[in-house]
């Protein structure tokens, strides 16, 4: 069953990667994979745990052994026998252990899902109030090179503030108003994906994988920004410089149909919701630093403030307008399939972590490579083939956060302390490596779906640029880590 769980996991990921050919939404595949794995684990827990690959189960048995060593000298034989039988019964109740382990993982997963749901709702509320129109209306140039640089830089910083998925959706919608030719729009949308993934990697709220590491405590706000800003910037700038030498001409603006420029919100409402939305997202790391509460609490607080504001702001408007502009109506537009996808995928990875698959992989990588840079570069390359969320979740499960005691025994573990080089480089590689293929990131999948970008076209036109940028940024980080220590 241990091997079967791995086979099911691989099949599930194959279904996710082949979402479009199979015409099966990846959320369904992810949910099936996660629930089936936990079902197999629960039904065969005794045999799987007896293999000795589960760190949590081995810890439970170690506790029982420590109790034996402690109490045996101070109690008589009869009393010890009763106590030891109770402890053994508790320690070897695998059903209770599996349920407890699932509950433990569910708490961590729920924090990520609530955070994402709150962020997606806030951004959708700003967009519904045409808040982003304030930014996009400022772009007037028709020069291809100049427009590409403007959009890429805008995407880079918007992605760090909002998130790479939402930023890509907003920018692709903008491109439809700026560029008429489909292939030109494909190229710009693909470069937006590169910039969005680069921008999301250095911000604790910009990319799901960095969010996971930030929520998990592997990285902290100020440090991840300071360490990854330059490598992420290089990842975006290098492909842009290459393209600037070959791209020429002007973009042809599309002729907009009547009504497309209709403004159904006032300038005050647009400015207010843009400021409140961005402010709510930027407030989250501040809230976490001050209160030491999980980030999702700060995100839900921001959503609550915006929710109350929209209710008051539109209370006297017709019912039809209220349904469109208040959070109650906007919730219907939030992409819940994305939430269920992350739920399924994180459940699947949690099952492999609990059963011990990730521990086996961790030991294999350490034995064969024992180099954090090589390991993370491989993870980044793999994230172009499969989703980067499970890869990061897997790495978080494979390598626990090291403390001073363990570092003293093994200096290599210094890479795994809070803000260690392994976690920083993991955030960079997993965040930017997915750009190498159109299906390798949430931003890429969104652009592919919205613009119907061809997979093979992306490989021919963009993949090489993405690989060059990825390796250039990685080189900058490695050089930076050696120079700064």
Word description of this protein:
The protein is an all-alpha fold and 485 residues long. 76% of the residues lie in helices and 0% in strands. It has a domain at 107-208 and 247-252 and 262-333. It has 25 helices and no strands. α7 runs antiparallel to α18, α10 packs parallel to α24 (442-451) and α23 runs antiparallel to α25. The protein is globular and about 70 Å long.
List the helices and strands and how they pair.
Blueprint lengths: L1 H16 L1 H4 L3 H18 L1 H5 L5 H17 L5 H15 L2 H35 L4 H4 L7 H18 L2 H15 L3 H20 L6 H9 L4 H24 L22 H25 L3 H19 L5 H7 L1 H4 L5 H20 L1 H12 L3 H11 L5 H11 L5 H6 L11 H13 L8 H10 L3 H30 L1
Helix pairs in contact: 1-3, 3-18, 5-6, 7-12, 7-14, 7-15, 7-18, 9-10, 9-11, 9-13, 10-11, 10-24, 11-13, 11-23, 11-24, 11-25, 12-21, 12-23, 13-23, 13-25, 14-15, 18-21, 19-21, 20-23, 21-23, 23-25
Structural class call reads: mainly alpha
Query: Using only CA atoms, what is the Rg?
Result: 25 Å
**How many individual β-strands?**
0
> How many helices does DSSP assign?
25
The gross shape turns out to be: globular
Helical fraction equals over 70%
Distance between the termini: 44 Å
Strand content: under 5%
In sequence order, what are the helices and strands, one letter per element?
A: HHHHHHHHHHHHHHHHHHHHHHHHH
Poorly predicted segments: 65-72, 86-91
Mean pLDDT reading: 82
How would a textbook summarize the main sheet?
none
């Amino acid at each position: 069953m241990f091997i079967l769980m791995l086979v099911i996991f691989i099949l599930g990921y194959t279904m996710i990667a082949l979402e479009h050919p199979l015409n099966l939404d990846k959320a369904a595949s992810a949910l099936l994979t996660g629930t089936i794995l936990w079902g197999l684990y629960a039904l065969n827990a005794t045999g799987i745990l007896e293999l000795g690959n589960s760190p949590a189960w081995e810890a439970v048995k170690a506790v029982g052994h420590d109790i034996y060593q402690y109490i045996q000298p101070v109690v008589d034989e009869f009393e010890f026998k009763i106590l030891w039988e109770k402890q053994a019964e508790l320690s070897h109740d695998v059903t209770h252990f599996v349920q407890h382990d699932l509950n433990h993982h569910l708490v961590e997963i729920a924090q990520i899902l609530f955070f994402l749901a709150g962020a997606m709702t806030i951004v959708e509320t700003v967009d519904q109030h045409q808040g982003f129109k304030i930014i996009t209306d400022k772009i007037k140039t028709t020069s291809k090179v100049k427009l590409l640089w403007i959009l890429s830089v805008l995407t880079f910083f918007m992605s760090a503030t909002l998130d790479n998925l939402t930023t890509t959706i907003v920018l692709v919608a903008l491109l439809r108003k700026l560029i008429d030719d489909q292939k030109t729009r494909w190229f710009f949308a693909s470069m937006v994906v590169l910039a969005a993934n680069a921008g999301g990697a250095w911000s604790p709220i910009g990319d799901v994988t960095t969010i996971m590491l930030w929520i998990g405590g592997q990285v902290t706000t100020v440090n991840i920004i300071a360490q990854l800003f330059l490598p992420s910037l290089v990842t975006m700038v290098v492909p842009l410089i290459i393209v600037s030498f070959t791209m020429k001409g002007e973009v042809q603006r599309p002729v907009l149909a009547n009504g497309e420029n209709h403004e159904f919100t006032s300038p005050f409402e647009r400015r207010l919701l843009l400021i409140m939305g961005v402010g709510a997202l930027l407030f989250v790391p501040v809230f976490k630093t001050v209160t030491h509460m999980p980030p999702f609490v700060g995100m839900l607080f921001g959503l609550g403030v915006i929710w109350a504001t929209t209710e008051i702001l539109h209370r006297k408007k017709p019912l039809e307008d209220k349904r469109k502009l208040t959070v109650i109506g906007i919730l219907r537009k939030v992409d819940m399939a994305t939430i269920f996808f992350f739920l399924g995928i994180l459940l699947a990875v949690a099952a492999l972590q609990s059963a011990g698959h990730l521990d086996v992989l961790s030991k294999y990588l350490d034995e064969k490579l024992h180099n954090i840079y090589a390991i993370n570069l491989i993870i980044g390359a793999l994230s172009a083939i499969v989703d980067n969320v499970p890869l990061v979740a897997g790495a978080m499960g494979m390598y626990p956060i090291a403390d001073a005691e363990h570092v003293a025994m093994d200096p290599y573990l210094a890479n795994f302390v809070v803000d260690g080089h392994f976690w920083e480089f993991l955030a960079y590689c997993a965040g930017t490596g997915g750009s190498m293929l159109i299906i390798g990131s949430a931003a890429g999948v969104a652009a592919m779906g919205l613009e119907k970008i061809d997979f093979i076209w992306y490989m021919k036109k963009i993949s090489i640029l993405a690989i060059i940028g990825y390796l250039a940024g990685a080189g900058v980080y490695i050089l930076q880590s050696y120079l700064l220590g």
